[in-house]
Amino acid sequence: MDSIGDSLPETSKVINSGIERRLHTGLQLYVSRCGEVVVDAAIGESSPGVTMTADSLTMWLSTGKPLTAVAILQLVERELLHLDGRIVDWIPKFAAGGKESVRLRHLLTHTGGFRNVETGWPHASWKQTIARICACPLEGDWRIGETAGYHTSSSWFILGELIQRVDPAGRIFTQYLREEICEPLGMSGTWNGMSPDVWSTSEARIAEMSQLEKGTTELLPWHDEQHCVAASPGANTRGPVRELGRFYECLLNGGELSGRRILSEESVELLTSRHREGRFDQTLLHQVDFGLGVIIDSNRYGSETVPYGYSPYCSERTFGHGGSQSSIGFADPEAGLVVCYVANHRVGEPRHQKRHREIVSAIYRDLGLANG
Hints:
The protein is α+β, with helices and mostly antiparallel strands. It is built from twelve helices and 17 strands.
């Protein structure tokens, strides 16, 4: 039995069954309960012939979005940003195309209305990407603050630009995230935009991600130097998944971990409260509730159909975020539970959602939490 199977036997069987069915060749998993580590391990391969370990640098995709959201809340705490402030108050060129009334709160709740901009990442420069997003028009028939539709990357680049514009130290997004969140929490292996030197010394640890399509597996080009070095605030965080677990343990502990505070208890409550409720999401094609940059348990709209949910057994206060067809990170306050995993194959939404529900449900059952 593998090291995951020692603590989570049903979960191990589900993950290994996925390997047998070619849904993934490797998976990294971290689970903690009330601050105590249950599992910090991996199964399978990170690339052909290379063992996936707990130290592998996995790509979190959108599972990393909450780090950017916390960075924004830090600046709100310091009164350098305001949730109801208009984006044009900080980035005047953003007003183009009818977007002048979009506010910071709308970006964090995915109600801003500029979802489908081709950002050019990673080939375009940061400046070029921001210019493209600023120039884009508001989507037709979009009611700002009311119409809901998940923004995969466009609004997150604007959030990153806001961080850069108001940070008194003048840091770029990558540096701010490292110094204000990752380093205080001991997340030394977590990056959103590595330096070339870090990439060259870390290349052997970087796990690959593949796309399973029509029975064939294609390696995605996300692990070369260009992709690893270019920051993308909503999509390109990578590191050992245990470090994402530390981030969620900090939030469960009111914004403090091991004596280092990154957010006030009041801001954590603000982050994880329902700010968008009962609305049909035009991107996710389901009713999904949001806090400020995090997804709040939405089982009330169908636990077997809600995308990137936290199992049928989670509490209504559970919060977190999923990564496209591959990953999740979440915290269940009532259970004191943190769960984070990354699988190395994107397998299409229907197959991933089935795989995902099987994994997280098994974790709850293994821990005796399936009955509430």
